[in-house]
Design a protein that fits this description.
Blueprint (H helix, E strand, L loop, with lengths): L2 E6 L4 E2 L5 E2 L6 H12 L3 E6 L11 E4 L3 H12 L4 E4 L6 E3 L18 E3 L3 H8 L4 E8 L3 H11 L4 E6 L12 E7 L4 E7 L1 H12 L1
Parallel strand pairs: 1-4, 1-6, 4-5, 6-9, 9-10
Antiparallel strand pairs: 2-3, 7-8, 10-11, 11-12
Helix pairs in contact: 1-5
Length: 207
């Protein structure tokens, strides 16, 4: 039985005990991919950032908060996985020195020094061996060009690309458009599909 490792959801990078930097990811796409993998008879390990979602029945869910925690758990699970799906929206930066207490308003500016988080998908790409690695590309322009670039640079086997659009619910549970490209250059254009439908297409493409 094959094991699918799915990273899903956002990460939160702490500013102080109350505030954090994050993004609009809901984790819905990654959860649907894990659910579909189980439906097809695979084991699913879901490394999830903070979401309001219930883990798919049968999945082993590992809850994390920050990018550092997500990287640690993905790398810990990597050796046992046959397929890795990096659907998480990992924050690109974190606060270098989070405050230990709540930052009080004082009528002036607050300066935050940000440091870049490691690219987990790229790191997995360097270490994956014969495992199948699926990455995601969320773009505002040059969708296919940027997706193909990411496919090559991160040593992905498949990239799923979608465009940020005011008319499509990219982050939620609504329908969206994606382009799926594999290492051989084959392309699938899927328009106006739910994340559940897209999960079926992606898992079908992998197996």
């Amino acid at each position: 039985m094959k094991t699918v490792l799915v990273a899903a959801g956002p990460t939160r990078e702490r500013i102080d005990p109350v505030r954090f930097i994050s993004n609009r990811s809901t984790g819905a796409f990654g959860y649907e991919i894990a659910r579909e993998a189980i439906r097809r008879g695979m084991r699913a390990v879901l490394v999830s950032g903070p979401t309001g979602l219930v883990g798919p029945r049968g999945a082993r869910v590992v809850r994390v908060e920050s990018a550092l925690e997500m990287r640690r758990e993905v790398m810990r699970e990597l050796a046992k996985a046959d397929i890795i799906v990096m659907a998480a929206a990992v924050c690109d930066w974190r606060v270098k020195r989070p405050a230990s207490g709540k930052i009080k308003r004082h009528g002036g500016r607050v300066r935050l020094e940000l440091v870049e988080n490691r690219d987990i998908a790229a790191e997995v790409g360097r270490k994956k061996g014969k495992r199948v690695l699926v990455g995601f590309a969320l773009e505002t322009g040059s969708l296919e060009k940027n997706a193909r670039k990411k496919l090559k640079e991160k040593n992905l086997d498949i990239v799923v690309a979608n465009r940020i659009s005011p008319t499509k619910d990219v982050f939620g549970c609504g329908k969206t458009d994606v382009i799926i490209i594999d290492r051989a250059g084959h392309k699938i254009v899927a328009k106006n599909r739910s994340k559940r439908e897209l999960a079926r297409i992606i898992i079908g493409k992998i197996i």
